[in-house]
Amino acid sequence: MAKAKTTAPAFRCSECGWTTAKWVGRCGECQAWGTVEQAGVAKAGVTAAGPVTEAAQPIGSVAIEAARSRPTGVGEFDRALGGGLVQGAVILLAGEPGVGKSTLLLDVTARWAHEAGRALYVTGEESAAQVRLRAERIGAVADHLYLAAETDLSAVLGHIDEVRPSLLVLDSVQTVSSPAVDGAAGGVTQVREVAASLIRVAKDRGLATILVGHVTKDGSIAGPRVLEHLVDVVLQFEGDRHSRLRLVRTVKNRFGPADEVGCFDLTDTGITSLADPTGLFLSRHATPVPGTCITVTLEGRRPLLGEVQALVATSALASPRRANSGLDSSRVAMVLAVLERRGQVKLSNSDVYTSTVGGAKLSEPSTDLALLLAVASAATGTPLPAGLTALGEVGLAGEIRRVSGLSRRLAEAERMGFTTALVPADPGPVPGGIRVVEVTDVGQALAATGRNAGLAADSPQRT
Asked: What is the rounded end-to-end Cα distance, in angstroms, of the chain?
């Protein structure tokens, strides 16, 4: 009898699956370093038909009750999830160290234990006593909240069999290892095995599972990319350690929109939902101050007001200083060049400092016009008119371009009490309580604000 032919051993990338005949240090497809490992290529063959787990049925007769979400009691977390937790869903929550992931999930599990059923919190980074102290501090102690400190996968599965929870939190997936596979905890092989085992248990038992993940120094989720493909929801926990604001951004969601953002306020007593976080991004001035302008940015589907501040001072250096905080450096440099060239505002001998209020990060092109007006106001020493907000992208030719979601932005500005909005031409539907001034280029924008006066009377206006 002839022997079955097998192909020679190959090398495969654990991140994207790219194969090569010899080992290389860097993947030729996804450009990741150190992910190419030796693996035998499966031999070609024919797979025979086997028994099915459940008969196929028309899509209209498939029951959807199992995919309905259940609120956790934390409003902004439910918003990011698309309504709440789905039984059997596996969620990956990633964020930088100290941003508040454990505090948020401890609050979520406590509320779930109060209202929905048993919850199991497994920690691999702290002792059970440390987690209990935090729970006492934030008021997250519940009778049906069970706590275990384990780093062995088999022990975690044993706790699931014993407690039989309806919600499982594993903090974190990089600290748990399986004795059945080689490699240290946190390695590609171990993370893949641990995640696959927990996903299998979650689907079989209808167990909602939240996995906490680490991030690399560039902010991406650590571990194999296949982990993000296997889970149902991927959430990114963001926030500046010097600010109280925290954002949970939805990156992937099989049960709802993938562009939602939940806002939280992190304090010494815990973390609370912020249904209206706009006030954190604005400063209060008794009288108008030169160098400030308000804009409206979109975080997911949520419009948020942000304040751009600028300071222009005479420079004593041969190369004037340019410093910014909370804004994209390349866009700031571009807007300054356009303002000097197209707006005839001299900045070549001045230091320019730009910043946002409240630790907000404004990287949207829609903040260009507000940045330009704030710098122009600081350079001339004249404040912008009170109640003014500016929305628009600035092009290199000096034109003001339209931005997405303009109607939602204007509605939020009107709700917050702003009376006038500087926008690109043809803004579409406009709320009735705000006056809209349309501008097409930098010159019209500077003329509309008058630099040292109110809005110009000859500017196109709509109400």
From this structure: 87
Burial 119-154 (b: 16+ CB within 10 A, else e): bbbbbbbeeeeebeeebeebebebebbbbbbbeebe
CB 305 within 8 A of CB 412: yes
Dihedral pair phi/psi, residue 326, rounded to 5°: 85, 0
Question: What CA–CA distance (Å, rounded) separates 442 from 401?
Answer: 11
Residue 335 · residue 379 · CB < 8 Å: no
Nearest one of 100, 112, 171, 170 to 145, comparing CA atoms: 112
Q: Single out the residue of 374, 383, 341, 381 nearest to residue 355, CA to CA.
A: 374
Across the 463 residues of the chain, what is the mean pLDDT of every consecutive 10-residue run? 52 80 85 79 67 86 83 93 93 92 95 94 94 94 95 95 96 91 84 93 94 85 82 90 83 88 87 81 78 90 90 91 92 95 92 88 92 95 92 95 92 91 90 91 90 41 49
Pairwise CA distance, residues 86 & 107, whole Å: 18
pTM: 0.77
What does DSSP say about strands 245-253 and 233-238: parallel, antiparallel, or unpaired? antiparallel
State how far the Cα of 308 lies from the Cα of 291, in Å rounded to an integer: 8
The angle at the Cα of 57, spanning 52 to 58, to the nearest 5 degrees, equals: 155
* Strand segments (E) across 129-166: 145-149
Six-digit token pair at 444? 């019209």
DSSP state at residue 166:
S
* Encoded amino acid at 333, one letter: A
Give dist(CA 185, CA 153) in Å, integer. 10
How far out from the chain centre does Cα 117 lie?
Answer: 29
Residues with Cβ within 8 Å of residue 235, at least 6 apart in sequence: 80, 81, 91, 92, 93, 94, 248, 249, 250, 251
For residues 389 and 434, give the distance between their C-alpha atoms in angstroms, rounded to a whole number. 10
